[in-house]
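Exam revision sheet. Question 4 asks you to relate a sequence to its structure. Input first:
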Amino acid sequence: MSLSRRQVTAAAVSSIPLAFAAAQTAHAGGRHHHPRTLYIAGDSTAAQKYSDAAPETGWGMALPFYLRKELEVANHAVNGRSSKSFVDEGRLDVVLGAIRPGDFLLIQFAHNDEKDEDPARYTDPWTTYQDYLRMYVDGARARGARPVLATPVERRRFDAAGNAVPSHGEYPAAMRALARREGVALLDVQALSLALWQRLGAEGTKAYFNWTATEQDNTHFNPPGAIAVARLVARELLRGRVLAHRDVRRLDEEIPESWISWPAPATA
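Answer key, structure tokens:
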């Protein structure tokens, strides 16, 4: 069942403390005076990876290489999450509890929304997927932050003729439609990554995905793949005027793979 617009909006804004709301009103129309942060809400393709998963690399790990140091990245993307399960687990609440006026919330989901055999994660592209995405959009806007929708990065999938094949069904189109309707900045990472995989070809793309001696992973990236996708994201942030030229760097430079590092897993 689709959530109503009223339910979505109420869920997004009901947790704003009164003191914070009052402070936000006082800031309305004014300039922010704190270092800005770009928050990422998403799935495993963007997430921070740890030493036990290396060389698997989320593109969010490479995005800071393209942004000025004054713009911090807070990567909240987590393996296996959909737009629905991220909300249901309280992860959006955590982000919205930390985000401040002038910050950004970059939202990329679909890989796990597509899993119709799993009711904890599945969303319908034209109803519940859009409804959940709207919770992120409304929640960010209610706190004076700017939401940014990113269509899901493409998997490595080719047909017999060597053409890169889209794998996300109606989800990218549904996100594009929502972005137009709500006036939200859109990074069309799906289209850009599909074009990149087409240029690289079926063999060339293996050097960008997590192909190892023991694994042939056509969804997740290794360091070169994460660096390449992060470059697409950074360029789109600039092209869409989400960020200014002063906010970005190295867009046309080679980023060494050695800059990627995998910290030790957190222990309980």
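Marking note for examiners. The first helix runs from residue 5 to 13.
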